[in-house]
Amino acid sequence: MVAVVVFAFVVLSALLVASGSNLIMELSGALDALFEASRAPHFVQMHAGEIDRTEIDEWAAANEMVEEQQTMEMVTVDGSALYVGSAETPETNTIMDVSFVSQNPQFDFLLDLDNQVIEVAPGEVAVPIYYRERDGLRLGDTIRVADGGFDRSFRVAAFVRDAQMNPAIVHSKRFLVHEKDLSALHEHFAETEYLIEFRLRDPGQAGAFGEAYASSGLPKKGTSVDRNLFMTLNGLSDGIVAGVVIVLSLLLMVIAILCLRFTILATMEEDVKEIGVMKAIGVGRRDIGRIYLTKYVVIGVVGSTAGYLASLYLNPLLSANVMLYMGQAHKGILGWAVPMLAAGGMGLMVVISCAIILRRLRQITAVEALHSGDLRRPAGHLQVLSLRNSGPFGVNVFLGLRDVLQRYRLFGLLCFVFLFCAFVIIVPVHFLTTIQSPSFISYMGIGQSDMRIDLRQSDDMAQRFERLLAYVESDPDVDKYSPLVTAQFTMVGDDGAEETLSIQTGDFSIFPLDYVEGKAPELRNEMALSSLNAREMDKGVGHRLVLIVDGQKREMRVSGIYQDVTNGGRTAKAVLPYDPEKVLWRAVSLDVTEGSSIDAKVQEYAETFHPARVTDLEGYLSQTLGNTIAQLRKVTVVAVGVGLCVAALITSLFLTMLISKDSSQIAIMRSMGFSLRDIRVQYLSRALLLLGLGIALGTVFSNTLGQRLVSSLWALMGASQIRFVIDPIRAYVLLPSFLMLAVSLTTLLSIRGIKETNIAEMIVE
Amino acid sequence: MNVLLKSRGLNKSFVLGKDNVQRVLKDVDLQIRRGEFVSVMGPSGSGKSTLLYTISGMDRMTSGSVKLDGSELADLSEEALSDLRLTDMGFVFQHIHLLKNLSIFDNVVLPGYLARNGGRKAVNQRATALMEKVGIDELADNDVTQASGGQLQRVGICRALINNPSIVFGDEPTGALNSKAAGEIMDLLADINRSGTTILLVTHNVKVAARTERVLFMLDGRIVAERRLGAYVGNGREGSRREEALSAWLLEQGF
User: Is ipTM over 0.90?
Assistant: First the structure.
């Protein structure tokens, strides 16, 4: 039984570590392959407005860093004009910026699912994978663009892998059509945006190149991004999954080793007389050790091999997402060797731990072993816990609890396992609750409001915004509102180099945001930075930086730092006059009065201010984070399953061994008249006390260490200080109940063996 | 005749393997009267201990009948058997078998608390009285590791008596003690018997058996002979005379 459980653990941890490392290998390989096949740009400047291609070409030709340059024109189609698949309603409330493009001639190719450059015929469209996953689109389905007098349907001919815009967290999506169709679309949808793209001779120089571009005077009405950011965004979610899987496998390994230690010591204890005899007749310690070691070497080798082989079946499941979004990379020797070595490492750990534990054989002398027959030290008498003082506890419950306190070293293992299980279950559940809660908006750099209206870049954006504000002002259903304008500013670095910074301006006291440090900007020389921006600029609260405002240098003081996972985590806020020419987005956040329907309001504004993007808070969250939430929900289900299984498995292993270890004491109690039920109650009390302790500690660790762990993962995206939103019913009632049920059932099943205890035989022995 | 324990055609076999069944008890008929002090003797492997554990319900019989105070043990469930052991039977073992992690006092009161026999206070009082009687009251709070073999056997006896059982079974109760301690334990058991408790002992020791009223001799799983010694009063050389007579009888039986 014990050997089976240890074997199961070795298999499981080898399986997970092999799959985790395989996922990392696949991910990095696939990313490289995708970036190579698509010839992803190293630096991209988005620009909404007119451009002068010759000017850009000349500048690029003169710049030594540039290897190639191209400018891609994107026709922006509003969600209200886009019908995906068989949908009868348009994508009015989408938060995605949808653009139609034609294939690039030189680089930044949009690829199909075989990583081949897509060529579409007139009337055909290649659709981002995001929509395939979201709506289950198939080849041959229809994408319809209908707006006013314009109505055209496209047949889906391919799905697009887009090195720049693959992940759901990137709010721009490119649909690929034939040049003729693009011209037709252009005629109707005048709004265009440009991607001014560069491939550099040395991709490592993207940073320096960015600065050079910023100070060049070339078009830059829009954000700029580089290859590193594409890489990070593409790899993030799968990278996190791989990390979690590997951490999980290591934790399982720790449990396996603890079980092994417990098992070997218990077996040695049982065999101590035999060990004594062997030592007495002159069998060496090494030879005795070998008897024990052989078994675990076999378990280590066979277990890790089985785990590795099983990982070959799990790998396609885990890397399905990578395969879909990035494609399959050619697997080099390392791709095979790393998971194999990782699985082998798990087997080796078992053997090494076993060898270390077996050093204890040295400490037993032949005479001691023959005489004592018991490796345990006397348990020690706990005066306070005398049966006389057992208070309201029944005899059986008291005996169970007392035993746990007396043999705390032994029971510590089980408590640790329960702690681990509680942690593994609670952290994902907490995080899922957090990410689903409306307050998660504060990690997106937005104050909490009922709804939000975003205007996109267009020539008449300022006028539309004025009309919107006037409408909001006179709307009796609006409780309060806050206009926010994001514009570009030039920041002058300490070394005099200029850099473009997108800053949101407005009154940030209306819908306040939680600040990690400091507070919202109130004065004209104050500004707040997103935590990723602050980290990259190496600025903290009270630090100064210089902006060019109205053509004048102005020294700004950093008033606060906030978390933001949007726009690659790089945003800023200030109360500043902006240059209308450099406005990127305009938005209004508003709260409706009590009793007004938010849904109806969203509908009303969407219709009145078409093509503005109107979303309620939940809509905004679910569209941005929907994919992440769905993934996380899967992870949570798996984590709860793993936690419950590990708890049950170890309880069963532990109790089976404990029953065998305690058999003589059980026999004594049975001889005295303790019934099987009495003994069951004793073991159940032990298990539940340990579980209670494990859950309590697990909860404390989840709420502290777990929160920090999740924050450190999300810090990569811009939210470094996530505070768990806790659903007390789920976290403190339901999950502990599941664990209790699993442990109680396993306990009762595992101690069925006490029925078979032959009292007479035990007593006579 | 007031019979407390009675077995008829009692059989116990152990299956040692395929086609290898060992019959340890063969059609054993036995009667113990209320208040009697009986010992069972016989060579090793004759089935003495198996008889003790089978008639006390610690081990299930293969066939036959055992009645304690009219209750047929074969008909009782495991729970009911446990309850019977708790309230109506007491056990004294050669290796005492105390619970290692409990204090001496706790070992004594444990069956009393479990049986909820008159409330914990009453159990405590009874335990204190029993421990005073056998002279171990000062050890109450000690660990089981802090007492001699003789003292521990007294603890075992107190534990066996805590629920006022109708019968006490003893399996070589003096087997692990020196002769002085053994003598003291037999004095104690005799006292207990005089106060009305029925006692059935299994022993190798002629000195121990000589203190009982009736000696049964077992050979190859059967009770083959019986010797009545009568009540032991402890006058002058009575002990030696009973031992000599018993030894001579045992020799006749081939022991």
Answer: no
